[in-house]
Backbone:
């Protein structure tokens, strides 16, 4: 691997090359994480909409959210009809504060069950849980975290079925005081969601030191798993 290839591989920003039919020919390490949140077809259609009408390179200032990633610009370029490339420029990601001050060590399953129980006393819904069973007790700002979780569930008050998933994000972690902490996600989906309190969800997530990604029928929160 030459210097250029190594540089692309270690770039903080996703870099992808497609062929003319939308098949991926090359991705750097950062782009591999991005492709876990978006289909190849959807991404290919998006980047070609930003390409020059003729051959060449075009950089556009944008505000794009893909999964948990946010981008402020992208460069799309092609020299012939066979290949097209894109580089997306990431906004700074959320900085997790891993201080245990004001945090409490809790059983995450009990917290989820408490939020579901609180919601179910007022709204009778079908709840499905897909939870990784191996989580230890973890530190959370429990008051604001529970408020956030309650608000998320109540945004599905018009949904017939609600599914809650809990798992670790493979290959992602934060480093704090020379120790690696994995990142977990908690995702709630349903067939219909009320968006009127989305601003409050974002505010509570910020207070709780949690990253949040809100889509039409899905809310996903992410946080480091701190257990010691």
Residues:
């Amino acid at each position: 691997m030459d210097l250029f290839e190594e540089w692309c591989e270690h770039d903080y920003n996703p870099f992808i090359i497609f062929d003319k039919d939308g098949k991926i020919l090359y991705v750097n390490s950062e782009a591999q994480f991005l492709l876990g949140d978006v289909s190849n077809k959807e991404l290919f259609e998006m980047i070609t909409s930003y390409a020059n009408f003729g051959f060449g390179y075009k950089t556009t200032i944008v505000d794009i959210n893909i999964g948990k990633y946010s981008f402020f610009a992208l460069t799309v370029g092609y020299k012939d009809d066979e290949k097209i490339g894109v580089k997306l420029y990431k906004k700074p990601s959320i900085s997790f504060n891993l201080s245990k001050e004001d945090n409490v060590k809790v059983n995450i399953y009990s917290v989820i069950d408490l939020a579901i129980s609180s919601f179910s006393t007022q709204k009778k819904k079908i709840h499905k849980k897909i939870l990784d069973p191996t989580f230890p007790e973890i530190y959370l700002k429990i008051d604001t975290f529970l408020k956030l979780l309650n608000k998320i569930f109540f945004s599905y008050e018009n949904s017939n079925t609600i599914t809650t998933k809990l798992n670790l994000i493979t290959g992602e972690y934060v480093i704090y005081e020379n120790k690696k902490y994995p990142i977990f996600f908690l995702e709630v989906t349903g067939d219909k969601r009320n968006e009127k309190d989305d601003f409050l969800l974002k505010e509570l997530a910020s207070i709780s030191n949690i990253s949040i990604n809100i889509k039409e029928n899905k809310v996903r929160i992410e946080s480091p798993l701190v257990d010691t």
Summary: The chain has two domains: 3-90, 104-224. The helical segments are 3-9, 29-34, 40-48, 108-120, 142-154, 198-207. The mean pLDDT is 87. The first helix runs from residue 3 to 9.
